[in-house]
Design brief:
about 200 residues, alpha/beta, seven-stranded mixed beta sheet, 6 helices
Length: about 200
């Protein structure tokens, strides 16, 4: 069965100065693109979208998608708080999910194929954590199987999934994903993303 997905979209985009979730890219906002990717890969498994700093403004971007949006009131405490809110929402939606993939809305090069490869690698290797690897870094999107989900539940509010990858390297297998290095945290990064998109269309 495909993994459930938690899509984190709770941040305030303080470095960017405007909600990155609503930035347009290839005819869609980053949030819509990420949510559609999650839904396609999940293939009927639950998809939870965790919002925070902005909520009502994001809901129209999820219209028509089989996702469950939930606002993390304590989003400013850190990614761990949002992850635990996402897990609680998953628990309320479905009692038989066993694996979950955590992804962010500001990695526009994530594809359903990549997310399916995380699932396939988990099945093939038996490792409880399957991380994307780019530029020598292990990071998101990252899949946690049933035995590793308890580590997510115990995360401090201020910590993110990357902390678990560093603390438990023996549990981790990886999938190469060069595009993981592309995220949108600043106007410079966004401008570079748009330039790359324009060049690829020529």
């Amino acid at each position: 069965m495909p993994s459930a997905v938690i899509l984190l979209a709770a941040g305030s985009s303080s470095r960017l100065g405007r909600p990155k979730q609503l930035l347009p890219y290839r005819g869609q906002t980053l949030l819509r693109r990420a949510a559609e990717t999650a839904v396609e890969a999940a293939a009927g498994a639950p998809v939870v979208v965790v919002t925070g700093a902005v909520h009502e403004e994001l809901l129209p971007e999820l219209t028509g998608l089989l996702v469950a949006p939930v606002r993390c009131a304590g989003w400013e405490r850190g990614m761990g708080a949002s992850l635990k809110m996402g897990l609680a929402m998953l628990d309320s939606l479905c009692t038989n999910w066993t694996t979950v993939t955590v992804m962010l809305c500001d990695q526009p090069l994530v594809t359903p194929t990549l997310l399916r490869e995380l699932d396939a690698t988990a099945a093939r290797t038996g490792r409880p954590i399957i991380a994307s690897e780019y530029e020598g870094v292990r990071g998101v999107p990252v899949l946690f199987s049933e035995e590793a989900v308890m580590l997510l539940r115990a995360l401090p509010d201020a910590a993110g999934a990357a902390q678990l990858l560093r603390q438990h390297p023996e549990l981790v297998a990886t999938v190469p994903f060069a595009g993981g290095a592309v995220d949108v945290d600043t106007e410079v990064a966004y401008a570079a993303l748009l330039r790359q998109a324009n060049q690829s269309q020529k």
